[in-house]
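INFO batch 0412 | record 1 of 1 | parsing
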Amino acid sequence: MDNVSTDIEVSTDIESPRIATERIIHGDCIAEMNRLPDASVDLVFADPPFNIGYDYDVYDDSKEHQEYLQWSADWIAAVWRILKPNGTFWLAIGDEYAAELKLESQRIGFHCRSWVIWYYTFGVNCAKKFTRSHAHLFHFVKDRSKFTFLDDDLDNRVPSARELVYNDKRANPNGRLPDDTWIIRPADVVGDLHSDDDGCWSLQHLLPPTDGERTFTLRPHDLDRCLKATEDTWYFPRVAGTFKERAGFHGCQMPEQLLGRIIRACSRPGDLVLDPFSGSATTVAVAKKLGRRYLGFDLSEDYVQYGTDRLSTIRVGDRLDGSPEPLKSAPKTGTRSAGKMGTRRGSANQMSLWPSEQRYSEAQLELTLRGVAEAYCRTYEGYSVDRVIVDPDRNARFAAACQALDLVGEPRTWNFLLLRLRKAGELAALPITQRTTLDWTECDRFVFASEAAGQSLINDGRARHLSDILCDPLLACQFDALAMSLAPGQPAFAYRWGALMLRSRARTAACQAAALATPRRFSRPLPLAELEIAEFPAAPGLYVLIDEARRRWYVGETLDLRQRLGMVQNRLDDWQRLCGKLFVRTQPIAPHIAGSLQWQGRIAQRLNPRLNCRELFRQLNPT
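INFO prediction complete | emitting tokens
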């Protein structure tokens, strides 16, 4: 299998209870967290009300000082209880209570790994004080020596100063970890800076500074040594009301790239990410895009509905809004054209895309594969991949699980990806405890119809091979209908599984047939409509169906020639719709090799009949 990650992780503990996730719950976060089991969450990101009088629809953001601190202590204690021992807690808070909540979190038991400053443009104007353009992000862990921090993941690294500023060829192509000052811009800024398809910023709405001496800077990109990517102040322009990234209902929305940096670094795909104050649902939206399980709480029914609607438009693996490294994609103020940018040393146009930009397609595939593996784990109940794909009921449950995980694609895609995972050995940890068997004596009553139906769809150009048919629910239904018309009386699963059994036996027969002697001559052609079925032996035999022009349509091998010819004659109209007026030639075979398909393969190689599956006999008939 090509381009498939070799480290897909699948939970093999299918009996363990799971928290009902992938949703936003309407309710008080403390009460809802108290309903969760101890040590059940991998990562918590909390952006609580700052107690600065913001106008929420159902929450009073003007609590008395001590009341706010006590309430904060209560919900932080709940976070401590639900976090796993190696779990991580991120807290976003403003100036007013940053120090107090840091100390309270440490009093409860958290260890502070980083005190990150999120620097943003479009700062909030304040009366008689400097414009506020930052917030505090505290990175806490429960165990100071054992916690999740994926520092080697390319998605968690940023360009170094050597590359970004000096365009130095000695720069590490993998970049380095960000410092704790973060600079990230949102996607599709309207009214200020607009993100073009090429990743550059349009400056149509900006004029160059009028200060010829450049005694001030409009934006941090204007100073080569200002807010470097290795510092602990993060620059992510806040999501203002004119930005397309704005969800449209919440005034304190975090940029997706900021949450992406935290979730990528401090959790793995499949981990549970929780946001006690869901609000605009950015945390859960980003968690979903990055292949994490997610859970959010909010007091406001409106916010819950808005957030749920937002999640419904997202699929696992979707790109995050905004640029992952704004300093790399943004020119300096006053640069008017891409042509001028190209003349600057270290400009964005001279640099290749950052690895995280190049990995989006790979990440989409990898996360979808993880989701398919998880859906199989949830629904396979000990059965093989073949059974889950071929059994209509089981495949419907598998597809429903994929849909519940909001994976990209549809059942046909998910079935093919499941086959790719098995081929790559990624499902080997899941034990197969339920065996699927059909007695070949029973299969002899209908497997010929499965073969003819499958090859007929391939001849019509509707499929390339049997897997195409069985993985595509629409084609599989067409296959069922045609097989039932040729040999009625079986459930859809039997026809499909019979086709797989035939293919499996044919692989062995393909090798054995090469050793067989030249076959005996067949009987003279007889019109199928005029056959006296009772004259044929109820014993193993071969038969060939030909038309008036002596074109060969099907070579069959059966344990009971009389029964088989009777079945074909009973459905003669359906067979002749495929082949025209039919004649049959027969010959007996030794009982001890009947059912092995050796002679069927040998004759198929010689006669090249149209309805014998080429995939089944391609080793014998490579042309």
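INFO post-check: The chain is about 35% helix and 15% strand.
INFO record closed
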